[in-house]
Amino acid sequence: MSSYDRRDLGLLLLRLGAGGVLAAHGTQKLFGWFGGHGIEGTGQFMESVGYTPGKASATAAGLAEAGGGTLLALGLATPAAGAAAAGAMAGASAVHAPNGFFNAEGGYEYAATLALAATGLAVAGPGRLSLDHALGHVFDRGWMVPTALGVTAAATALVVGTRNKRLRDKKPDEQEALFAEEEALFRE
């Protein structure tokens, strides 16, 4: 097997793994599958951690994860898929950041790893074992990578920045109640 073949197989495995996990998490938010809470429950959680309106935030996060993950797994529209998934995971990382790095303590380790995998796939491309390759890279042009990542970074910065400002503007007792509620939701 040549190095080129190994690269394609490696990208396929990474796409299937990261894309599958992202898609599953998105369907938890959208449909309540795999033990998720659906739009209603996820929307309530989103509100509790400062992403408002909650249902719209849950829908956006669910679509970015389920759609981006599915497209990554298929290797289709890889720059946009990777950027969408990375943006959703950056938003999740912002929620988990106060808990430190490690996932065992509720930290951002897991979300950041998925964000980096999705970004890496957007940059590296899907490889030859992909729908993008089969379709002649119609949805995977070089200019699409910086465009998709740049637009997503700007939108994510705006959403997370707005959330952070909203949390800073809350009174200290409201913040304490919010963090206690958030911690209880993570323990479920």
TrEMBL record:
The chain crosses the membrane at residues 71-95, 107-131, 143-161. GO terms for cellular component: plasma membrane. Keywords: Cell membrane, Membrane, Transmembrane, Transmembrane helix. It is found in: Cell membrane. Its main location: membrane. It comes from the Bacteria. It is a multi-pass membrane protein. Belongs to the DoxX family. This is DoxX family membrane protein. It comes from Streptomyces guryensis.
